[in-house]
Amino acid sequence: MNAAMPRTAVLTLALSIALGGFVSTPLVAQAKPAAAVASVDIPYESFTLPNGLRVVVHTDRKAPIVAVNIWYHVGAKDEQAGRTGFAHLFEHLMFQRSENHDGEFFEPFKQVGATDQNGTTNTDRTNYFQNVPTTALDMALWMESDRMGHLVGAIDQAALDEQRGVVQNEKRQGENQPYGQVWDKLTRALYPANHPYHHGVIGSMNDLNAASLDDVKTWFHTWYGPNNAVLVLAGDIDLATAKEKVARYFGDIPAGPSMAQPAVNVGQRPATTREVMTDKVPQARIYRAWNVAQVGTTDIDQLDLFSYVLGGAKSSRLDQRLLHNDKLVDNISAMTDASQLGSNFLIMATVKQGVDPAKVEQAIDEELKRLIAEGPTADELERAKVQSRAGFVRGIERIGGFGGKADALAQCTVFEGDPGCFRTSLANINAASAADVKAAGAKWLGVGDHTIVVEPGERVALEELPSVKPAPFNVPAVDAKYSTLPSQVDRSAGVPQTKSFPELKFPQLQRATLKNGTQVVLAERHDVPVVQFSYEFAGGFTADQGRKPGTANFTMGMLDEGAGQLGSLALADAVERLGASIGAGASLDGANVYLSSLKENLAPSLALYADVVRAPRFDQSEIDRIKATWIAGIKQEKVQPNAVAMRVLPPLLYGAGHPYAIPFTGSGDEAAIQSLTRDDLATFHKQWLRPEGATLIVVGDTTLKEVVPLLERSFGDWKGEGEAPKVAAPADVARPQAARVYLIDQPGAVQANLFAGELVPSTMDPGATRFDIANGVLGGDFTSRLNMNLREDKHWSYGARSMSSSALGQRPWMAVAPVQIDKTADALKEMNAEITQFATGQRPPTDAEVTRIRNIQTLSLPGAYETAASVMNTIGGIVRYGRPDDYVFKRKAEIEAMTPAQVAAAAKTLDAANLTWVVVGDLKQTEAPVRALKLGEVIVVDADGKPVEKK
Q1: Whole-number Å distance between alpha carbons of 922 and 942
Q2: What is the rounded CA–CA span in Å between residue 227 and residue 256?
Q3: Any residues with CB less than 8 A from the CB of 270 and at least 6 apart, and which?
Q4: How far apart are CA 409 and CA 404, in angstroms?
Q5: What is the 3-state secondary structure (H, E, C) of 151-188?
Q6: Bridge partner list, 661
Q7: Vertex 78, ends 77 and 84: CA angle to 5°?
Q8: Which helix (H) or strand (E) element contains residue 875?
Q9: Is 349 helix (H, G, I), strand (E, B) or coil?
Q10: Strand pairing of 54-59 and 229-235?
Q11: Distance separating alpha carbons of residues 43 and 55, to the nearest angstrom
Q12: CA terminus-to-terminus distance, the chain
């Protein structure tokens, strides 16, 4: 549940997802796209109930699940002065009980294994979505219709107070991040006070505090009728079934008033303006934004292409000039953010330390004016079009969730009245000429921009918008054209029970061995014309033992910065021209190189991929550039509450010298990265990226017969040099003798971020699955104990959770909660009590809790492998941890047979008396109350984990 940040249109996201070792014979990648291009579309059918509810149906039988996605055409733009934040507040309230369901909205969905469930609010709409097993569709429609037609009687003062507190903590959490105050400042500057986009989606604390029960109920009656909603059902469903079920559950809900939408008001500004603000950040950042054409226009589609050429890709003009050539920034981007009344075009640049921001602004302005004057080249435009189409193809693999097919259909219906408007956008992009793109830039990106420069300094509290008394409002009468159907559901009988569930299906794993010794594991997926590859190697962060910290991750990060005969920018050009995506990285116990290729360009994409794996250039100029950016990233980690904790906590848990006693960000430390040489990288690559003993996972639209010859062509003659290195199994570490508390100062913070950590047995331990279920009860789900306590009961936090990462050695278990800073000690006390009572058996897991987590873990499985990425991740675990091919079925059976007694025994793995706590927050407000708790020895440390002497 969250406020969308900023107002990114789903369709724009779907159309531009891809926009946001050496051999004796060199491999020359010929990056020429193939001629055959597979067509892509989202077929749909639609109908409207007599009460005005518009319904769109898309059939996709690849998995036995249905995406249920409902959009209400109400957002922050519809809020009166004095009632800012109401749309987002109501999104939260709609996850509470309804008149016929007394409990959290999530609960019935957890019992059937729903996935991708959430709700979001932006300026223009509020949406709710979830994927459910096909057999649970009646339950999902009953629940959605109950909160649409039968919610207001269940809203009481307690529910309002609870969710108001949660929302206020969500606001604090956003503002507490480095640069987190920018978005509110930017919207206030871009739009005048009387414009619907002037205030932020979360709204004003003053208005939220002033909200009365009557205000909230009036808001519901005004905006949440069926005639102001669009319901999309996508997946294992057909039109006839949809018509019958939607009429049954929604047909008797009366229509609400027909509320007029605000007129399109782009708000082009007559003058260019700027401001400078300070924040607790390590380097300056520049934000430059224009108000541009609204969603659904040819102009916004052409501006998408303009933004890609300017700063939306690794080889874009801003990247080439400011990042690669002049080396003025550590990162830079350009993007469009499409919305109903008007959109934004944004350029964002993080200035390299020691560089004058004015110099960066000048260079940005020069490149922008040059592109407007000259337009894109034919090659730039073609690459932008290919990437846009590739992003759309990848985006429509998913039926639901953020940016899936259901979202695209809903957005088109709500904003344009045409579920297929994405076809128009695709056509606009395909037809755009260089002159069109040039003209769009000239039309919209002249005067009228606003620039914010954030400089390092003190954080100044963001001033709340002044509160005003709302004008009286009466709910308008309902249009007589709407009618209802006879009621078909006895809601007093409660939520429909799901009696049967789809069987788990997982792709059969097919195997082959390349001449180079690499094992190929293939899972066929033919639903979208995309093939994904992941070359899996041993090593990872643990291979840094005896090396400079961060070597593994830095080396892997350099693989796509030039390979074979192509330098960094030329390689990026070639990859983008094919609509491919190539990346590499390391984790605790391994490393991998990844390729996502369009089926039509499979052979040339594999040729580039082979160069990246086998023949990275490690050009010194690129090493120096990435070093500077990497070190700047470490400095950024040290001011981000979660990241600094992930740097400090692991060494405290594992102790000096342990392979896992490293920042879990994988970034190492500044001195080590600065000292890395080309030989360090080449040696790591030579030793650890070798074909023998490696596994190449392939998932997607191909067969062994097709792909193995292509892989042999690219990798068959690859051979490792010298003896393969080995990493000893990480030694077990004893827990500390008593609890410890480490405080990290974050001056001016409005929240404290609380972490509790402890080591638990390896992922390969026979009891690992039982512990995972125990963790689920304690903090692994929204409905778990920690979150229900700190968020839903106390409303001190936007969300609390616990988790354990996978590892060959002892796993780190962590509980995490960002809380309002005046509740730091109280929240620590509650967390400690929850963990203690659970681990000692004072409050053992109940049958209901175990059943809920069991259902979440098992009933969700038929829909869990909807995407190739989810299949690939599971196969990666099979490979990394030596699991059998039928692991997913064996794990499911183990969980289904698990008893509360077994889960209670697994809970005893934790020992609250020996926890290591890390608290990140303003020391002036946290230290005294934390010390008074007497949880354990309290030590103040810096962002490197080193003790800070008292002044």
Answers
A1: 13
A2: 7
A3: 447, 448
A4: 9
A5: CHHHCCHHHHHHHHHHHHHHHHHHHCCCCCCHHHHHHH
A6: none
A7: 80
A8: helix 868-880
A9: strand
A10: parallel
A11: 14
A12: 43
Dist CA 373 CA 305 (whole Å): 16
DSSP codes of every residue in 275-311: EEEEES-SS-EEEEEEEEPPTTSHHHHHHHHHHHHHH
The pair phi, psi for residue 824, each rounded to 5°, is -55, -55
Distance (Å, whole) CA 381 – CA 513: 40
Two tokens at 706? 């097709």
126, exposed or middle or buried, with CB in 10 Å at 0-12, 13-18, 19+? buried
What burial letters (b/e) apply to 519-532, b meaning 16+ CB within 10 Å?
A: bbbbbbbebbbbbb
* 273 touches 451 (CB < 8 A): yes
Q: In the chain, how many H helices and how many E strands?
A: 33, 26
Order of all β-strands in the sheet with 801-804: 801-804, 811-820, 751-760, 916-921, 740-745, 937-941
Mean pLDDT by 10 residues, the chain (951 residues): 42 32 29 50 97 98 95 95 88 89 90 92 95 96 96 88 82 84 94 94 86 88 96 97 98 96 96 95 96 97 97 94 96 96 98 96 98 97 93 89 92 96 95 98 97 94 82 88 96 95 94 97 94 95 88 95 96 94 94 96 97 98 94 93 94 92 89 96 96 97 97 96 84 94 93 96 96 96 93 90 94 96 96 97 96 93 90 96 96 96 97 96 96 96 92 65
CB 607 within 8 A of CB 30: yes
Residue 152's CB is within 10 A of a number of other CB atoms, namely 17
If DSSP codes are grouped into helix, strand and coil, which group holds residue 817?
Answer: strand
Q: What are the structure tokens assigned to 484, written together?
A: 């209802």
How far is it, in rounded angstroms, from Cα 599 to Cα 634? 38
Instruction: Decide: residue 716, CB within 10 A, 0-12 exposed, 13-18 middle, 19+ buried.
Output: middle
Hey, what are 85's tokens?
């934040």
Q: How far is CA 25 from CA 515, 614, 694, in A?
A: 16, 11, 21
Of residues 115, 89, 45, 56, the one with CA closest to residue 224: 89
Structure tokens at 912: 């609250």
d(CA 121, CA 76): 8
Instruction: Write out the H or E segment, with its range, that includes residue 928.
Output: helix 923-933
Q: Which residues pair with 754 in a beta bridge?
A: 817, 919
Answer whether 924's CB lies under 8 Å from 951's CB: no
Among all chains, which residue has been given the structure tokens 């994904």? 532
- What distances in angstroms separate CA 740 from CA 246, 599, 649, 919, 946, one per listed residue? 55, 54, 11, 11, 15
pTM: 0.89
CB atoms within 10 A of CB 157: 10
Two tokens, residue 743: 């405080």
How many residues are listed for the chain in this entry? Answer: 951
Q: In what order do the strands lie in the sheet with 115-121?
A: 2-3, 115-121, 126-133, 65-72, 229-235, 54-59, 45-48
Tell me the chain's radius of gyration from C-alpha atoms.
Answer: 28
Cα(806)–Cα(772) distance, integer angstroms: 11
Alpha carbons 783 and 801: distance in angstroms, whole number:
10
The DSSP H or E segment spanning 907 is helix 900-907
Distance separating alpha carbons of residues 807 and 254, to the nearest angstrom: 54
- Of the candidates 478, 295, 422, 445, the one whose C-alpha atom is nearest the C-alpha of residue 370 is 445
Measured distance CA(118)–CA(128) in Å, rounded: 6
CA angle 687, 692, 694 (to 5 degrees): 90
681, 586 Cβ separation under 8 angstroms: no
456 within 8 A of 281, measured Cβ to Cβ: yes
Backbone angles phi, psi at 753, to 5 degrees: -105, 120
Closest listed residue to residue 772, CA positions, set 806, 740, 743, 727: 806
